[in-house]
């Protein structure tokens, strides 16, 4: 369960992390009043569960209350990467001397957590990580040990963060542990001109398995404000919309993650994460294809299934049901292996749909889907 920025900031503040004063509203008129109460000059920030808001025009520095009203009026209702802006947060600006990046994230492969930190935070952290990976420190965290002051000091030293950040690093770990979080990210964490360490932005993802302990966040405030994610949730599908052009469907989170990596390794971008589960029926497969094919950014779809509990002939039947339900206009690459794979492949071969192609290996299927999505 992803939190909105203002919710994440509240969690940080609850655990003693410094954050600027801020208020949230869904009204441009109210934004003028709140800006006045916050001192006049404010940062107006779109509240949506996606990154890249600043570059997309969803973050504006307003010089005075009338400017805050104009900014809120422009931002409210915007579409940011498929998310409609329904609320804005007005935050008190601070004088920034340095910007840093800090996060704790669950590392499932290692069976622990990973601290990721850099002395070069801000909007361009992705470019920094891609062009100069040595500028981003990645430090394993033993869940049993946690982030003690000594561990926090080691993280700060590895990333080139000032010693003043150590206390904040410990508190951010407390947020992760005490709030059942899978991700706690602050970008930027700043040192202000008066020497304070302040979190200007926050991203927190809570474990859905602990949702019952965090009812105050609920889902009624538009948790799935992406229409495709909302439609998928209504069908009980584990779907996350991404920014690419290759739709991805698989059975099992690990296989889907591997498939995303394979697509990216072939020079294309995944358009989604969709796990149809270990015992998915033909109906679930058909529902999943309906969702993925509804994304206008998708130019090709890759279905990667290893049959275990889910028999490959049931998957193939679901694909054929989806083809019958919707007019297939995008190429569909299918890799089936495992339980009843031969029968599943035979079902697809018998239909011989011109837009359905079968490839026997995951890497080969990823390459084919990437080529189809990026051609022309």
What is the element layout, followed by pairings?
Blueprint: H1 5-14, E1 22-25, H2 28-37, E2 42-46, E3 59-62, H3 65-75, E4 79-80, E5 83-84, E6 88-91, E7 96-107, E8 112-118, H4 125-131, E9 136-141, H5 149-159, H6 166-178, E10 181-192, E11 197-199, E12 203-206, H7 227-234, E13 238-241, E14 246-250, H8 253-265, E15 272-275, H9 282-293, E16 300-307, H10 312-325, E17 332-338, H11 341-351, E18 356-358, H12 362-374
Parallel strand pairs: 14-16, 16-17, 17-18
Antiparallel strand pairs: 1-6, 2-3, 2-6, 4-5, 7-8, 7-10, 8-9, 10-11, 10-12, 13-15
Helix pairs in contact: 2-3, 5-6, 8-12, 9-10, 10-11
Structure description:
The structure is a single chain. The protein is of the alpha+beta class and 376 residues long. The chain folds into three domains: 21-91, ATP-grasp fold, A domain (Dna Ligase, domain 1), CATH 3.30.1490.20; 96-213, ATP-grasp fold, B domain (D-amino Acid Aminotransferase, Chain A, domain 1, 2-Layer Sandwich); 227-374, Rossmann fold. It has helices at residues 5-14, 28-37, 65-75, 125-131, 149-159, 166-178, 227-234, 253-265, 282-293, 312-325, 341-351, 362-374; strands at 22-25, 42-46, 59-62, 79-80, 83-84, 88-91, 96-107, 112-118, 136-141, 181-192, 197-199, 203-206, 238-241, 246-250, 272-275, 300-307, 332-338, 356-358. Strands 7, 8, 9, 10, 11 and 12 form a six-stranded antiparallel β-sheet that branches. Strands 1-6-2-3 form a four-stranded antiparallel β-sheet, covered by helices on one side. The chain has a four-stranded parallel β-sheet with strand order 14-16-17-18, with helices on both faces. The model has no long low-confidence stretch (mean pLDDT 89).
